[in-house]
Structures are given as C-alpha cells and as structure tokens.
Amino acid sequence: MNILAVESSCDETAVAIVADGRRVLTDCIASQVELHRIYGGVVPEIASRKHIEAIYGLADQALDAAKLSRSEIDAVAVTYAPGLIGAVLVGVNFAKAAALTLGKPLIPVHHIRGHIAANYIAYPELEPPFLCLVVSGGHTMLVDVQDYTKMEILGGTLDDAAGECFDKVGRLLGMPYPGGAAVDKAAQTGDENKYNLPRPKPGQNPYDMSFSGLKTAAINLIHHARQVGEELDIHSLCAAFSAAVSDTLIPRAMQALEQTGYQKLAVAGGVAANSRIRRDLLAAAERLGAEVYMPPLSLCGDNAAMIGAQAYYEYLAGNVADMSLNAYATKTILGEMI
Ligand code: KG4
Ligand code: ZN
Fold first, then answer.
1. Does residue 171 have a pLDDT over 60?
2. What is the SS3 assignment for 219-279?
3. H or E element that contains 14
4. How many A from CA of 48 to the centre of ligand 1?
5. Helix (H, G, I), strand (E, B) or coil at 139
6. Ligand 1 centre from 272 Cα, in Å?
7. 266-295: b or e for each residue (b if 16 or more CB lie within 10 Å)?
8. Per 3-state DSSP, what percentage of the chain is helix, strand, and coil (rounded to 5)?
9. Beta-ladder partners of 134
10. Which atom belonging to ligand 1 lies closest to the Cα atom of 164?
11. pLDDT of residue 336
12. Which of 258, 265, 262, 296 is nearest to 280 (CA)?
C-alpha cells in the first residue's frame, strides 16, 4: 500500500511516499529554518504561507522521485494535530484535495504518533508493545505503546518541553535557532560539573517531569554572569544543561521499563538526536538488558516518512477521515474520536 504522506505542523514542509508502513520510497522536505532564524523562532504566519508555496511542488517532486504515477497512490495521509494551527491547516487542506481528486482514503495522523513511528522505518523488525520516550520541541513524555494505535501516557512534563528549554538556552547564548543542536555541539567540550543545575522531581507520579525550573536556573545563571561581568564558560554550561535534561529523562524511562516489564525502549522526536541523551540511554538500558531503538538523526526531526509509517497502521485500524477533517492545534495521542 503506497501512502502519500504530508507533514506541515511547524517549520518543515514535507511529503513522503511510504510502502506498507515500513519502506520509504521517497522523503522530500523543504525546511524553513533559515527563514525563521532571523526572528529567533518560528513565525506562524510566515510558516503557513511558506507551506502553501512549497507543498504542491513538493508533492510532484515526491511522485517523480519515487517514479510513481498518481494512480499508484493508494491513500493520502496528513498530520492533523498538534501544531501551529495555520500550518497544520495547509497540510490538511492539501491532503483533503489530493484524496478527493485521487478518489483514495484520507488518513489523519497525530504528529507525535508519527514521531514514534519513525522507529518502524529505522527498525523494520520493531513491533509493539514497547516503551517510548518522546522528546520533541513541544512534547516530553513516556508512552506505553501497547499496540500501533493503542497507547497510554505514563507521565510527562508538567510545564515546558525539553526541546523548548534547549532552544531558549541556545537563544540566550546567541546560538542560531533552533538551539538544541548547537547546545549539544558546544556541550561536547564542556565540563558538566562546572555549573550546578537542578533536577526537579514534581508531583506524585514518578514519571512526571518538570523543566521550567531548570530552564529558569540556566537563564538566571547566564543573566547573573553578564550582570557581574563574569566570563561564562558556554561549553560547560551547555554540558551541565544537557546532563540535567538527561538525568531527568533517563531514570524515569528506566523505572518505566522495569514497571512495564518491557525489554524494548524506543526514543522519538527532535531532542532524541541529542548525543548526551543517546549515550546515557544506551548505557542505562544495557544495565537493564533492554534493547534501545533510536532512529537516525534524519528521522528524529520532523519529516513526512514517519507520518506515512503511522498512517498505514491507522488505516489498518480503520482510522480514516472524510472531507470534514479539521486541523487541531492541540490533541492528545490517545486516539480519541476524530
Ligand atoms: O520533533 P521536532 O523536530 O519538532 C517538534 O515536533 O517539536 O523537535 C525539534 C526540537 C527543537 O527544540 C530542537 O532544538 C531539538 O528538537 N533538537 C535538539 C537536538 N536536535 C534537535 N535538542 C537537543 N539536542 C539536539 N542534538
Ligand atoms: Zn515534531
């Protein structure tokens, strides 16, 4: 089953064609990152306009690259939530028009479910159930993936997402948007023990997390150094910050592995590209004898291949939409009725 998949929830316009949920025939992406960089973050209105400009050409490009004709497309999938509402709408409207014109099913896909499904592409043998640590720009949570379309959230951030905090710290340090990758790179040559940053433990649920205190502590440290004219060791601050994020995520993931009894831990989302988190996860999971699934960096960030992968399983579960499909800025991954 060849699924034409569309992703436009933030600042990447992407169209992919994925066969049977696992085989990527083509994965085209038009990134707007450079455009938003001068503003230090995504400008929603500009993002929507750029999606409109890019999406039709990108779809043609995807068909050409896969050497497929339109009649060989069996379904059209699209990220319908969550994201910047105007940006998501562009993808949803395009997908509706494409499905209607081709006379093929329309499959709505939750963006975070898509991130999780990036693992199905990277690891063709991976099947639920497994535990997934989702760490993206807007979401941080531990998900019990019981089946392809049946999930339970064990816990997650009560405030900021890890990615948001990486970006904020990067921005204050004068790094280009989005700051996560730059903070990660700077951290490589830093001393993580030079600065002391908190590892908050909020609430009753052992799997819940909080990053706003850590973010504020890092911001205060930077402001204080500037006010008193103290030279900041940026590399060490980045190392300390990355260590604090990792120390928040990894023990919870390990506890959840033990509680669920799963032997499989997958990671998903843009922050899953972080080298410190990847290294710590591998070491911690090895101690528990668990298998770790980490998509390559190209599949960690936003892309349409992951949407095409999840769409296949949504289709098998009967989750198709009609022309009344809408876009949503927020929605849980729990698969409530659309
Ligand atoms: O999943 P994603 O592409 O977009 C959302 O769905 O939110 O994640 C983007 C986030 C950004 O916050 C970016 O700074 C972060 O992923 N990121 C990283 C790294 N690469 C990307 N954060 C830490 N270390 C990295 N190497
Ligand atoms: Zn994403």
1. yes
2. HHHHHHHHHCCCCCCHHHHHHHHHHHHHHHHHHHHHHHHHHHCCCEEEEECHHHHCHHHHH
3. strand 12-19
4. 20
5. coil
6. 7
7. bbbbbbbbbebbbebbeebbeeeebebbbb
8. 45, 20, 35
9. 141, 268
10. 12
11. 63
12. 265
Does pTM surpass 0.70?
yes
Tokens of 209: 């997390």
Looking at the CA of 138, name the nearest ligand.
1
Burial of residue 88 (CB within 10 Å: 0-12, 13-18, 19+) is buried
Q: Residue with structure tokens 């900041």?
A: 232
Alpha carbons 258 and 206: distance in angstroms, whole number: 13
Pairing of strands 130-135, 264-268: parallel
CA 181–ligand 1 middle distance (angstroms): 7
pLDDT bin (cut points 50, 70, 90) of residue 337 is very low
Residues with CB under 5 A from ligand 2 (ion): 136, 302
Q: How far apart are CA 308 and CA 299, in angstroms?
A: 12
Query: Which residue's C-alpha comes closest to atom 20 of ligand 1?
Result: 181
Q: Are 188 and 176 in contact, with CB atoms under 8 Å apart?
A: no
Rounded average pLDDT over 210-215: 97
Hey, whose CA ends up nearest to atom 11 of ligand 1?
Answer: 137
Q: Which amino acid appears at position 94 of this protein? A: F
- Quick check: 219 pLDDT over 90? yes
| C-alpha of residue 157 to centroid of ligand 1, in Å | 16
Stated as kind and residue range, the H or E segment containing 290 is none
